[in-house]
Task: structure prediction
Amino acid sequence: MPRSAPTPLKLNETERRDLQQIANRHNTPQQIALRAKIILLADEGCNHREIGRKLSISRDMARLWRERWLRACLRSLG
Result:
């Protein structure tokens, strides 16, 4: 059975800049920096497996944070 591709994620310039700052700031807690990196990689078009490999995390964790980001975006629109 073929697997479906993850839902595309597109950041605007402000979101991308803010997430890059969070990911690169030395005083950002590592969990928060990791979440920012997951979203940035998803924005670049990486799938869950690629994100997992690049960040040494599980595909499930990559999927979880992509889905949470997308849900938060939908809530802010509605």
Observations:
- The CA atoms of residues 35 and 65 lie 7 Å apart.
- The mean pLDDT is 91.
